[in-house]
Amino acid sequence: MRKLILAAVVGTAFALAGCSEKTEDAAATTADAAASDAAANVDAMATGATDAMGDASAAAADAATTADAAASGAAEGAKEGVEKAEADKKM
Known about the structure:
mainly alpha, 2 helices, 92% helix
């Protein structure tokens, strides 16, 4: 993305090479602003991706905790079932 913007800025600079100094200064200011905006957008996207990764990590941890609790409950239920079956067998 930055390369594309840089190419556009360079192309604009060459196109304006024959223009007046005032026009060139304005073009340079515009190019600098565009580069700053592009950098800010990249930073914002990186921050959004980091936040999304944090959310996904938290969701995975919650899922693991839930799965662990379910497995513990299932094991306890199986144990109780075996104990009941053994008790019924003795009767």
